[in-house]
Write a structure and sequence with these properties.
Arc Repressor Mutant, subunit A; single chain; 3-stranded antiparallel beta sheet; alpha+beta; 3 helices; two-stranded antiparallel ribbon
């Protein structure tokens, strides 16, 4: 999955999609995941980064990553 190139992301986690005019805010972990996706990291690399930096177990990460990635795709922020 990749973040679309036209998506604007501020340092505070504010996301703007100029194609749809939609804007979103994300928490620090979501912000970090978006930046890792922009760096072309794959799911496994993202998982290892998040598990090493935050107090989260693997099954929680899997569920939350699935939900977040689905939201990004449905909001036209990311694509496969």
């Amino acid at each position: 999955m990749k973040i679309k190139k036209n998506i604007a992301i501020s340092e505070s986690g504010f996301i703007f999609n100029p194609t749809t005019g939609d804007s979103f805010s994300t928490n620090p972990i979501g912000f970090e995941i978006i930046h890792l996706l922009k760096e072309d990291k794959n799911k496994e690399e993202i998982k290892q980064t998040i598990l090493s930096r935050y107090a989260v177990d693997e099954s929680t990460f899997e569920k939350d990553f699935y939900d977040f990635s689905t939201l990004l795709q449905n909001s036209q922020i990311a694509e496969e």
